[in-house]
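Structural prep section.
Before we set up the soaks we want a predicted structure of the protein with zinc ion in place, mainly to decide which crystallisation condition to try first. Input record follows.
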Amino acid sequence: MMHETYFRRLVDNNHLVHAYAFTGINTAEKEKTTEYLLSLLACQNKTPEGQACGQCAVCQRIKEGNFPDVLYIEPDGRSVRVDQIRELKQWVATTPVETTFKMAVIQQADLMNTSASNALLTVLEEPVDHVYMILWVNNQANLLPTIQSRVQMVGFDEGDYQEKQQIFVEQGYSSAHAFVLSHLPSENVGLLTAAYPPGDLDQWLRDYHYYYQLLVQCEIQSFVTVETHIKKHLKPVPVALLGIDYLLFINYHLLLKVSNDNEVEAPSMYEQFFNNLIKQKNPSVSLLLDINQYLLQTKQYIQANVSPQLALEQLTINICK
Ligand SMILES: [Zn+2]
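Run finished without errors. Recording the tokens verbatim:
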């Protein structure tokens, strides 16, 4: 449900990026969201709320699995092989048959072998305007970091989160802090908990909340905040990246709240924080989508060895200019 609202806003505002990784174990939900997104892009008869109609010929064909401009790639045996990615590359280069876009879905993209991964990387490095890539990934850690930096992650493992949250609670974190930790990419979160044991994580969260608040308010003061509040949290680099992941996480939930979808409730720990932000600034959906894009860009800069402090200062300038 949350993902549907999110993608509807992205499509409405023309903010879809070229490649997404749907990470986590909930394959049924990944399938549903992929089909939902496909219908949103393809339907020629959308409702006033921006939903696909579900009735037109295109919507029908998508439901029946008969839509020509989507390509699903399944693992061939135990891996996704390089010739499958080469075929994908050729398919991407052809014109859409029925609509104005094409979508490729790589199921279990974490089963790509190294040569397949490298072949896919060359596709991701030269995005084509009307082509979208969706990677279904059970375990994000199995995806090459170079690929991770080219795609936007969207999590699909609610059940898993609860289990993880419980583990952090057992380590002594409050349930709100454990909630946050369980939603950050698990391969690096151990570095964060090593640097910030239960008593110290609060400061990390408060500094990022403060910085995020200034970003949303487009306060140029947030530039100084990188030096005064955030700089101390930027080492080592994977911990700096977790900070960006956390900003993306907050921004995602505020975006859903501002989108005003009644089905969606923000996590309770943010209720007051979000209400204050909305009262002070009333951030627009398009501002939050811009922040989303700039945060992703910041991540890419850091992954390309730009100093995290410099990347965050640039982020601040981009948002507050
Ligand atoms: Zn339709």
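Observations: The first strand starts at residue 19 and ends at 23.
Flagged for discussion at group meeting.
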